[in-house]
Design a protein that fits this description.
This protein is mostly helical. It has helices at about 1-15, 15-25, 40-65, 75-95, 125-150, 155-190.
Length: about 190
């Protein structure tokens, strides 16, 4: 029983957790990778990055090993994997990647960074470029909204709920972009 538990924890620690915590450091907000399949991308990237991190840890431990003192043994490997995972978790938590930590204690909640449109109030050229990006994003969101509306007419109640929530999020973002475009137009008028 203890051996099988050790194997499960070891596989998670080598092939999943370091990559997952690193992905949360790089992309702390949900739906950063993809609005629809974010969790799938996170899981796939987590496994791939975990293998890369495992290789890097192995190289690092081998580099500091000597004939008298080998470090590529279970103890240092466990310590290295746990340390790397803990550091990535702490950085991800500070960036707001784990909002569910609020359930443990309210003081553990960290908000994720907000999306920003860079350069709107800097220069007219940058404002126009930012407005162009906003218009492109708005058109894409409208296409996604139309697709979601078409897909929401399914008989599966779980899919209906999913698409209803997705439609609400898309409409909110489109309204947000409308407000940003209005502020850009007002700045250009001044």
């Amino acid at each position: 029983m203890l051996d099988s538990l050790q194997v499960v924890v070891g596989v998670l620690l080598v092939f999943f957790l370091p990559g997952y915590t690193l992905i949360n450091v790089l992309f702390p907000r949900r739906n950063d990778l993809d609005p629809e399949y974010d969790i799938v991308y996170r899981l796939a990237l987590s496994m791939g990055l975990s293998v890369v991190i495992a290789i890097m840890i192995g190289f690092a431990l081998n580099a500091v090993s000597t004939e008298d003192q080998p470090y590529v043994t279970p103890g240092p490997l466990w310590a290295a994997f746990l340390s790397v995972t803990a550091v990535f978790f702490a950085v991800g938590w500070s960036r707001g990647a784990y909002p569910s930590m609020e359930r443990i204690h309210p003081s553990l909640y960290r908000p994720a960074p907000q999306r920003k449109v860079a350069g709107i109030s800097v220069s007219p050229e940058k404002r126009k470029a930012a407005a162009g990006k906003l218009l492109i994003e708005q058109e894409q969101l409208k296409k996604d909204l139309q697709t979601s509306l078409e897909r929401s007419s399914t008989s599966n109640p779980h899919r209906k709920l999913y698409y209803r929530r997705r439609i609400d999020r898309l409409r909110d973002r489109i309204q947000e972009i409308d407000r940003e475009l209005d502020s850009v137009r007002q700045e250009e008028g001044d």
